[in-house]
Task: inverse folding
């Protein structure tokens, strides 16, 4: 699945299909995440987005058992690292916004470089800083294409607010869906395309140990 090239049209199309096929689940999971993040003044925003990302990875991989809305709370398994990730990225956005001439678009310029950080954090079980670095290293080679992708995803996510205000809850998850779809294309290969995401706390399945058979008695011993 990993091809090293960003196919903007294919990623957007795949994201739309994925979102439509699992709209109820994705919408409710994001609604829970946004509400809890807001009620806690952002403290739970990171862990909740980690939970949403876990759900989207499992949906995209067609993993079993199928995810449920309650799986959003599995983001608490990554509480500290997800919290720190959102804090660091938020601070970076805020600092960049104060740079003369580029402040208004600073967040847009940074977003492609960190768009895979949450996926890497929950999928690869990395801490927040290595996840940010890994996202940056992958994104820098296709920065322009990923910038266009992020802009399109952000525009489509904002349509709900433009059209009917509260409808933003219907379109807000789309950017996250796009980041998951792009992550799978750029970080995975065909060997793991259909593999379900491994949740935090789950032990990987070890292959059975080979059992050696005892040697046959030699003819001299008869």
Result:
């Amino acid at each position: 699945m990993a091809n090293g090239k960003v196919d903007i049209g294919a990623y957007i199309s795949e994201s739309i299909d994925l979102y439509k096929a699992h709209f109820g689940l994705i919408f409710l999971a994001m609604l829970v995440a946004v509400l809890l993040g807001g009620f806690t003044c952002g403290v739970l925003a990171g862990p909740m987005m980690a939970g949403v990302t876990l759900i989207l990875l499992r949906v995209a991989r067609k993993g079993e058992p199928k995810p449920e809305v309650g799986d959003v709370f599995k983001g608490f398994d990554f509480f500290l690292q997800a919290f720190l990730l959102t804090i660091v990225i938020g601070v970076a956005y805020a600092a960049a916004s104060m740079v003369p001439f580029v402040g208004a678009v600073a967040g847009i310029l940074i977003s492609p470089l960190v768009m895979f950080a949450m996926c890497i954090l929950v999928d690869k079980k990395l801490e927040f800083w290595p996840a940010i670095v890994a996202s940056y290293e992958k994104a820098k080679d296709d920065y322009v294409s990923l910038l266009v992708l992020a802009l399109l995803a952000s525009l489509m996510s904002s349509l709900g607010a433009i059209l009917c205000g509260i409808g933003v809850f219907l379109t807000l998850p789309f950017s996250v869906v796009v980041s998951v779809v792009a992550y799978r294309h750029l970080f995975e290969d065909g060997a793991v395309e259909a593999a379900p995401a491994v949740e935090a706390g789950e032990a990987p399945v070890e292959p059975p140990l080979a059992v050696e058979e005892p040697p046959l008695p030699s003819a001299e011993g008869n």
Observations:
- Confidence is low (pLDDT under 50) at residues 190-213.
- The radius of gyration is 21 Å.
- The chain has one domain: 8-187.
